[in-house]
Every structure is written in structure tokens, then in C-alpha cells.
């Protein structure tokens, strides 16, 4: 059992709770007052992210950057992306790069180099497994040698996710169960002291039954859980994907970033974000305790 | 029937043949003599790409940039990526951005903005459909309003592609057939004068039986065909995915880019690439004629 980054994430959750702040920063999210101080989009986005990070880091498990929002702003956006990653990593905070890449081996090696080293280095990345397990394998040496982690898509939170993922395979289970078990097997070599593997899975909380089934069948897979809040997932749904309040991190982007828009007289946007992160953490903690009481009762 | 970019690609194939040059440019591919002229990686890569483009554009259908190779070089790589796209589009040459993105609707809109407009604008992009059809739909308005095109992954060329794609769905066909038919249906509104849709599919030529089946079942889907050459696919395999020598473009990257390494005394690397592109074009043309003769005989 080697040193695994998943153990570090596990510890963060033990200490700070399950919230993952999604820094899916759109320019329209930045309060006018802050935006007007900057000439470059790049600087405005980085400063916005920095303030959200500083205001929340001690009440959340980790951060997630959705790269699409940065790619949409071209080179400036990607510079802000790179700077935000560096800011997080310099402070020993954990960051997931939500890139959902997936390609053949030679190309996968390039993506691994791109997102596990250099200017876009992050701690965890998300991957799309549609091309098969040989499109995941080229990333695995980084789990062992560079202390990196992966979350592979298994059952996503969107309503169309059933188109492929819910199809029932002849003589087997649904596609998502099949994919989940292939990932779980591939991750056996990267299980840390926490009992979880640094090769984890993405399981949305918006599909209750599927999430429950996966939580049962995937013993050593850590969950990255999207779908809470803006996408309709509730704390009670999230609780089904956790084990004793750990075993997963729960992403929220817009609800945390735009919390200030819900307050009539907010003073600092980042204080509103912090309040929402704490509210979410406690909301999920309550649901976990209620579920445990029910299961014991 | 509106103006569709797929018709432009169809015409290019009628005129220049089916070859798609894969500009998956790794620094190690650049001859030392050229590399040593540049201080910046960015300039070296762009100059290499430019020379390959200038040497091949009249004997090929289009170009494909595998973004992973550029992401792996950080900001410099992405600047070279952006410059290469612009160089191609300024010359009215067609380019496919091989990005294989796939995400929920709000994020998909960001990827569409990123790769169909601005600094990373291309003519076609590749998409991964694992998350379902609502992860493809946000790109479709660009097909109509901005004359753009898509190739969605259906059956990929790698050996592990069967892990998910070949699973047989209860009461239905294989996953790849199911995905292919969903994409074909979604593409019905974007069929051009050529009879093909600007929403096409990726079908590797390394899996003969699957490619044959898909060519039969997908009447209006244009094929982007990887797997020829370095990955083991032969002209005879490719011919099965075409119709009268059209209906698809066939990618080759390393075999065209590194053609100069096969020649003992090459003069210009780009001349070697041109020769290989012509050889490949004619190799496939021959196989198409042989297959037609066989089918008629």
C-alpha cells in the first residue's frame, strides 16, 4: 500500500466535510464592482477565483475547475486556469481538473502529460471511459509515481445520461454498472490507507437508485458527486452515495459562486459563498446522520 | 435543405481524395535542422505544420488537429494550435479539431463557444457521446447558424474499444449501433445536398465487421475514419467504410508526418509527407475500385 492522494482527500473530508467548490467561473458571475477594476479578463477571473478560494478553503474538501469555462475565453481564459491551479497547489489545497478527456493510448499519454505536469498540473482529473480501458490505462503510472488521482465517468447527473449508461447489457447489468466494475478492478492497485482507490468514479446524485446500487457494488471507489443544488440533487440523495459521511466529495458550482445574488445586501460576494458552502456542508451532514439513524432504527 | 459544411467536405473528397492529414505534432517529429532555427517551441511547431499544410493541401481532403499534443505543451502549444487553425481557415482549407469533448448542457455550451468561435475556431469538432444526446444537442445550433460540423464517437479504432462499444444491449443491437442510430437521427435536420449530415460519426477501420455494419445502417452519416496505417488498418478495410470513394475521410498522422524518416536521403521533410499522402490516396482509390469490381462481378 503506497502513498495515495485519495487518502489526502479522505482526510480533508474528515476534517472539513464533503463540499467540492466548482470554480466554473463565467465572466457574468463576477460582480461588476470587481470586474471594473481589471483591464484583462484573465486577471479578473483569477482574482475572483482567489477570493472564493480564500473564503472557503477551511470549510470545504477541495476545488474543481471545469476547463470548458476557461477554454471558452481562449488563451486569456487558459492563463487564468493555469494561475488558479497554481494558486491552489501552492497552498496545498486539492484540485480536480474537470476535463473529461478520453482517447487512444498515444493521445492519452499526451493528455496525461498536459494535465498531470507543467502549466496545467492538477491533483485529480476526470476521464471519459467510452473508448475503453486502454484509454484509461496510460494515466495510471501517474497515480503511483506522481501521486495523482482520477475520477472516471460512470453515471452522470444529466437527464440524458440514460441514453447509453442505463442500457442493459445482455446477460449482465446496466452499462454504468459494467463500466463501474471495470474501473473498480483497474483501481485495485491504487488503494490507499483509507481503503479507497486513487482511481475513483463520477456518480451523479440526481439518479437515486443508480447511485445506491453503485455505492453497494463499488467497494473501493471514491465518488465525485455532481448534481447537488442547481441540478436538483438534495442532501438526502447525496447521503446515499456516501459512507459515514465520507467516500465521496459533492460538487456545487453556481449555488456557491452566485450565492451573493440571493442576498439583498451582501457586503462581500466571497462571504456569501462561504456561508453557502457551510450551509451545504451542514445540510449534507444532517442528511447523513438522519440516514444512519434510519438504517440503525 | 440549408447550406451544410459537409457538402464542402464532400466536394473536397471528390476533387482531392479521402486523405485527412492528422497534425498530431510532437516536438520529436520536427527535423533537427528546422527545430534549431527557432527559439520558441510555438514557432517551430507552427512552421512545421505550415510546411506540411503547404505541401499537401491540394492532394488531401482536410486536416485534423489532435488538441492533446498541443495541450501537452501548455500555453505555447495552444498558441501554435490557434495559429495553425487560423492558417488553415484563412486559406479556406477544412479543419477538424479532434477534441473529443462531452459534458452536460451548460458546459457543452462553453465547449461549443470555445471551439466554434474565437481563438480556437475550427470547422468540425469531435465529440464523445457517453453522457447522452443532451450532451450533443447544445452544439447543434452552430451547425445551422455558423456552418459547423461534428463527428461523434461511435466505434473507435483502439483495441479496447469493445469494452463498452461492443456490448450487446438487451433486445437491441450493440452499443455502437445504438449510439450510431441516435446520432444519425439527431443529424437528420442537417443533411446537405450531398445526402450527408453535418453531424457525422467516428468509425475506425480497424474493426472490419463493425464498420461494414455501420456503413449499411447509417445512411446519411459521414464517417471520420481513424486507424489507417500506423494503427494497422489497410486500404481494403477503409474501402468498406466508403461509398463510391466518398462518404468518409481517412485520417493518417504519424505515417504522413514521419514519412521523411523512411527515406534514406530526403531533401525536404514536407516532400516526403506529400509523397505519402498521394500514396495513401491512391492506395485507397485502388481498394475502392477493386471492391466495386468485386461487388459488381
From TrEMBL, chains A, B:
Domain of life: Bacteria
Keywords for the protein's UniProt record, in alphabetical order: Decarboxylase, Lyase, Pyrimidine biosynthesis
Keyword Ion transport attributed: no
EC number: 4.1.1.23
Enzyme type, top EC level: lyase
InterPro entries, per the entry: Aldolase_TIM, OMPdecase_AS, OMPdecase_type-2, OMPdeCOase_dom, RibuloseP-bd_barrel
Recorded catalytic activity of this chain's protein: orotidine 5'-phosphate + H(+) = UMP + CO2
GO molecular function, one term: orotidine-5'-phosphate decarboxylase activity
Residues at the catalytic site: 100
UniProt pathway annotation: Pyrimidine metabolism; UMP biosynthesis via de novo pathway; UMP from orotate: step 2/2
Pfam families in the record: OMPdecase (PF00215)
Record GO biological process: 'de novo' pyrimidine nucleobase biosynthetic process; 'de novo' UMP biosynthetic process
Domain Orotidine 5'-phosphate decarboxylase: 18-269
Family: Belongs to the OMP decarboxylase family. Type 2 subfamily.
Protein name: Orotidine 5'-phosphate decarboxylase
Amino acid at each position: 500500500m503506497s502513498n495515495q492522494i485519495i487518502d489526502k482527500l479522505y482526510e480533508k473530508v474528515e476534517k472539513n466535510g464533503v463540499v467540492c467548490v466548482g470554480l466554473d467561473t463565467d465572466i457574468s458571475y463576477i460582480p461588476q464592482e470587481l470586474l471594473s477594476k481589471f483591464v484583462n479578463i484573465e486577471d479578473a477571473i483569477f482574482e475572483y477565483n482567489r477570493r472564493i478560494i480564500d473564503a472557503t478553503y477551511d470549510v470545504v474538501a477541495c476545488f474543481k475547475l471545469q476547463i470548458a469555462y476557461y477554454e471558452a475565453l481562449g488563451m486569456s481564459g487558459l492563463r487564468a486556469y493555469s494561475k488558479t491551479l497554481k494558486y491552489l497547489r501552492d497552498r496545498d489545497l486539492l484540485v480536480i481538473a474537470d476535463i473529461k478527456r478520453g482517447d487512444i493510448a498515444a493521445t492519452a499519454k499526451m493528455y496525461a502529460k498536459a494535465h498531470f505536469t507543467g502549466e496545467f498540473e492538477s491533483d485529480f482529473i476526470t476521464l471519459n471511459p467510452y473508448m475503453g480501458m486502454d484509454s484509461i490505462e496510460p494515466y495510471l503510472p501517474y497515480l503511483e509515481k506522481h501521486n495523482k488521482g482520477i475520477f472516471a465517468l460512470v453515471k452522470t447527473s444529466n437527464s440524458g445520461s440514460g441514453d447509453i449508461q442505463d442500457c442493459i447489457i445482455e446477460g449482465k447489468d446496466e452499462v454504468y454498472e459494467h463500466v463501474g466494475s471495470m474501473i473498480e478492478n483497474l483501481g485495485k492497485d491504487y488503494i490507499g490507507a483509507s481503503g479507497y482507490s486513487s482511481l475513483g468514479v463520477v456518480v451523479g446524485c440526481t439518479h437515486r437508485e443508480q447511485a445506491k446500487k453503485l455505492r453497494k457494488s463499488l467497494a473501493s471507489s471514491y465518488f465525485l458527486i455532481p448534481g447537488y443544488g442547481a441540478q436538483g440533487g438534495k442532501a438526502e440523495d447525496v447521503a446515499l452515495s456516501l459512507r459515514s459521511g465520507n467516500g465521496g466529495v459533492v460538487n456545487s458550482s453556481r449555488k456557491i459562486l452566485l450565492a451573493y445574488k440571493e442576498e439583498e445586501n451582501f457586503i462581500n460576494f466571497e462571504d456569501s459563498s462561504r456561508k453557502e458552502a457551510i450551509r451545504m456542508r451542514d445540510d449534507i451532514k444532517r442528511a447523513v446522520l438522519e440516514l444512519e439513524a434510519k438504517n440503525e432504527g
